[in-house]
Write a structure and sequence with these properties.
Helix content is 30%, strand content 21%. The chain has eight helices and ten strands. Bound molecules: flavin-adenine dinucleotide. The site of flavin-adenine dinucleotide (FAD) has 32 residues, from strand 3, helix 5 and strand 10.
Length: 234
Amino acid sequence: MSIIDWNQKTTEDLEDFLKPKIILPGTEHYAGSYQGWAATDHLPAMICACENTEDVQAAVDYAQKMKLKLSVRGGGHNWEGLAFADGGLVIDLTRLNSISIDTTASVALIGGGVKSIALIAAADEHQLVAVTGPSGEVGVAGFVLGGGYGLTTSSHGLGSDNLLAAEVVMADGSLVHTSATENPDLLWALRGGGGNLEWSLSCTFSYILQNLYWPAGSCSTSRRQNKYWRDTTN
Ligand SMILES: Cc1cc2nc3c(=O)[nH]c(=O)nc-3n(C[C@H](O)[C@H](O)[C@H](O)COP(=O)(O)OP(=O)(O)OC[C@H]3O[C@@H](n4cnc5c(N)ncnc54)[C@H](O)[C@@H]3O)c2cc1C
């Protein structure tokens, strides 16, 4: 269900709404915003620095109305620069970086733009382990959507195994919640389906954090891995 029915809005409404968040080529922040890990010649026509789910919905709807190619930027570490649509609109999720940890359930609710290092550090404060790869700048969402292997794969599974639920903006701008009991097919698809999945944009994720002290066999390994990540990631 959509928070706001953006489809009822005109292109001008959407432009007014998005204007403060749009970064255009030739402006001060453009270069830094579109560069990712991969060296490509992709030059997006505009970047929308989204701050919340409504921004994402509006950007999706705007791109549809303007027939612009869309891509989504999480941590920007896709090997082919898929986060940066050449000539298209980039939905930049970097500012969706909130992390909220439920220590009782050992679950983190994270924004779609959270980087691995931030989740590792937040989990570590509670002596919990986040299943991520060893490179701290990789986006958790991109990692999870692609499967996600790392130093804890043998003990705690792939990243996608630890995804519990997500809030997803669909191609028509609607907002859908998915979990094991709500729209479970979508959760299945997110678990390894890759990014840009027929236009689903995951704004928040509910992600299992592993307890360092259970199961006993993996605790010392996990603790060492956490320390290794803290000491070596950038
Ligand atoms: C230096 C380096 C080290 C790596 N190490 C590992 C590793 O140890 N284990 C491993 O499994 N992988 C590893 N990878 C691969 C990495 O996990 C994937 O490339 C991952 O997709 C990057 O995610 P990102 O968010 O940083 O990248 P982005 O380029 O921002 O996004 C990657 C893809 O996911 C989509 N996407 C990102 N966020 C969202 C979202 N919230 N909703 C919908 N779609 C989204 C993007 O559109 C794009 O298609 C590594 C990559 C690099 C460059």
